Amino acid sequence: YGVAGSQDLHEKQQPAESHGAFEVRDDLLHSTHKFLQVIDQTLLQLEGEFKFHIPDLDLEGEVETLMSNPGMVDKLEQCVMNWHTQITIVIEEQKTKQPQVYKRVVAKAKAQDGKQVLEQWKASYFEVRALIEKSDRDSRWEFNRKKLFEKTDYMASVCQDLYNILQTLDEFYIIFGPELKAVTGDPKRIDDVLHRVNCLAEPIEELTFDPFDIRKMSSWKMTIQKFKTDVQAIEREAINFIDHSFKTLRSSSAAFDLLLKFKHIRSRDAINNQLMKKFNDILAQYCKEMDLLNDIFMKLKDNPPLNKNHPPVAGAIVWERYLQDRIRYPIKRFKEARELMHSEEGKVVESKYVEVVLRMRGYEEELYNHWKAETTQTLPLLMKRSVLIIVNSAGTVYEDSIQPNTDVRYSVNFAPELQEIISETKFLDHLGMLLPDEVQNVALQEDKFLRYKIELKKLVNHYHSLMDNLNDAEFSLMADQVQELRRVLSFGCKRLNWNCLGIPQFIQRGNQATSKFESLVNQIQKNEQDIDDKLKSIESANLFKFPMADKAGHLPGIKEFCDFIGSERAKVVNLLVNKYVAISPLLTKIESLIMGTSTGKAKRMAQFYAYWEHKILDSLTKMVLQNIQAFNNALIGTTPLFQIDTILALPEIALLPKNSEVYKLIRQCVADCVESTKVCCRLHNSRQVTFI
User: Fold this and answer.
1) First-residue to last-residue Cα distance in the chain
2) Which of 111-120, 146-155, 427-436, 452-461 has the lowest mean pLDDT?
């Protein structure tokens, strides 16, 4: 007979469309429960209810090598034993689990089948009886109906009771699903209710009698009554829970979606009716959300939070529209339920919505109109600014004419306000704002302006690099060339603004001028480097070369020692003179590069000559001081340099030559060192004027 019942005779006589709808519904429920079961299993596999401990062992190497380690083998064996124990426990636990969803679906199916069979038996009897009576073969074809149908009618009613039980459980499971958890924010209490729902079936599953035995009718009725009482208790608790939860909703929109879902899904009538009464609570929650968003708007509208790279006005409008969208989305959904918005509460909410949205739109219009008026006024002035401005190293702008020796630097004069206007225009256009033509025209040239800014920045940086690389003497020497370069660049400070079409040509002329100036600087500094190399060679010259001992180890006498030093010094000085004399042509070459003359007496070169004369003097001074210091250190050192004869003249020992003569010879040697610099005359005339 099966374990459960089916639909009653009235349902059987409904149109085919209703039966088809019920079949689709039950198939959908079955598929949904199956899908949920797959999700649960997948989550279990992903998260893992059980975890195997993997020991921290170094398993690199050959298997034979690892097996030869007793400690390693013991640890691996212990690990495998632990895994075996865990696997055994898991398998035993899985064996005890019952497939609840599948059992409910199968039970309901056996109940669409058992009741139909029982009712079909009764229907067939009456059909045959009617046919016999129509055939006039027998005036009355009748049997004891109680004996025929009492038991089967009772069994059909039991099947119907079982079907109703399973249907009730399904309705509870539909209501207390993940959507209600998300809306109410109280999953624990919903799980508690679901636990009570699961317990409803336990008395049925654990019956100690056969429910289809008509002799146990009273016991079965008591069981059914107990089930109905428990169901009513759960419904009351569910209604209280819903009443409380809908007073503290998380989201009016999510709650509304939930109600719309249950409006079209068959579930517990008492709970469903209670849910349908919660539309006003949703409207109340929406009013709270609207008040919160309005408070945020009023508090931050004068200094709104901006997204990264958003300009002030467009960023404020983006923020305001975001708040508008937060308010607009729920009410658009509410309007799908016309009866909701046509109520008194709905009309109040809609009126409040219009008030808040109009306030926000007014804020947006005020921002835009103020920006438009200000931009229309300031944009022409910003575009008329020169492309470059003159500043000093501290960044101070020069207002008056500059002097030739002034510290002049250039800066690209693309106003930050102009960049902001371009950025605002792009974002406002994206937001659908109607923008003035002159503003759009400037914004469309953003790429061109960016390219100009980069190229102008390279130009002025090149200029600054060249100026920073000049010393005072070079700057004075190249004063005319510096002024010419500044004259080219100053064109961008006076006659060229951001409306002009000649900016690329100006950049080209500026690059040519700086490249020409750089080439000249490089040539001058190369000649200066050659002079520096010669001066360093002079500084390092050795004017006190000492004689070596002969093969027998004898050192020269003091006179021979000094004569040797003087002779070697003459050779060194001769080489130094050659290097020194080579400096003059280099300076003449620099004169030729600067002025196109080779006189060696150009007045403009006077400061440059003086600069190098001081450097030559410094080099000669260093050379003399270093050599005298080295000679002094050698004299007081422990290494013998020369030898002095001694004569025994009793009662004294005499030196030959005497101390005074030795001192005189050494002093003369030092004096000769200083005198050797007289061969270097001043560079700016032919007179033999020595530096020392």
Assistant:
1) 135
2) 111-120
Q: How many CB atoms lie within 10 A of CB 251?
A: 17
How many CA within 13 A on the CB side of residue 519? Answer: 6
Residue 323 structure tokens = 């708040």
- Amino acid 4: pLDDT: 32
Sequence length of the chain is: 692
The answer to whether 281 touches 259, Cβ cutoff 8 Å, is no
Rounded Cα–Cα distance for residues 496 and 213 (Å) = 108
Give the pLDDT confidence score for residue 317 in this predicted structure: 94
Name the packing angle between helices 416-430 and 446-468 (round to 10°): 160
Which of 19-28, 325-334, 577-586 shows the lowest mean pLDDT across its residues? 19-28
Judged by phi (left if over 0) then psi (alpha if -120 to 50, else beta), residue 644 lies in: beta
Give me the percent of the chain exceeding a pLDDT of 90: 36
Query: For 41-45, 116-120, 527-531, 568-572, which range has the lowest pLDDT when averaged over its residues?
Result: 41-45
pLDDT (0 to 100) of residue 40? 65
pTM: 0.59
Q: Is the peptide bond before 651 cis (omega within 30 degrees of 0)?
A: yes
Residue whose pair of structure tokens reads 């690389």 in the numeric block: 469
- Average pLDDT of the residues of the chain: 81
Work out the widest C-alpha separation in the chain, in whole angstroms. Answer: 190
Beta bridge partners, 390, equal 410
* Sign of CA pseudo-dihedral 678, 683, 686, 687: negative
Mean pLDDT in residue range 492-515: 94
Which pair of tokens denotes residue 133? 């009576």
Cα separation of 574 and 571, whole Å?
Answer: 5
Which band of pLDDT confidence, cut at 50, 70 and 90, is reported for residue 423?
very high
pLDDT digits (tens, 9 = 90+) for 265-319: 455 666 666 666 677 777 888 888 899 999 999 999 999 999 888 999 999 999 9
CA distance 403 to 396: 15
Rounded to whole angstroms, the Cα distance separating 228 from 212 reads 19
Residue carrying structure tokens 């004299």: 635
Task: Output the six-digit token pair for 593.
Answer: 């590069």
The span from the CA of 692 to the CA of 690, in Å, is 6
Cα–Cα dist 306/498, whole Å: 30
Distance CA 558, CA 534 (A): 33
Q: CA-CA-CA-CA torsion for 364, 368, 371, 374, nearest 10 degrees?
A: -130
Q: CA-based angle 273:276:281, to the nearest 5? A: 130
Q: How far apart are CA 140 and CA 137, in angstroms?
A: 9
Average pLDDT over residues 193-199: 87
The phi and psi torsions of 642 (rounded to 5 degrees) equal -150, 170
**Mean pLDDT across 533-544:** 93
Residue 216 DSSP one-character state: G
Q: How confident is the model at residue 405 (pLDDT cuts 50, 70, 90)?
A: low
Choose among 335, 333, 175, 177: nearest CA to 256: 333
Q: Percent helix, strand and coil across the chain, each rounded to 5?
A: 70, 5, 25
Q: What are phi and psi of 557, to 5 degrees?
A: -75, 175
**Which helix (DSSP H) or strand (DSSP E) does residue 426 occupy?**
helix 416-430
Give percent above pLDDT 70 in the chain: 80
CA 350 to chain centre: 40
Question: What's the whole-number mean pLDDT along residues 123-134?
Answer: 74
CA atoms within 13 A on the CB side of 351: 7
Is the bond preceding residue 330 a cis peptide, omega within 30 degrees?
no
Question: Angle at the Cα of 205 (from 199 to 209), degrees rounded to 5?
Answer: 135
**SS3 at position 692:** coil
For tokens 């056996």, name the residue: 110
CA 681 remoteness from chain centre: 69
DSSP label at residue 643: B
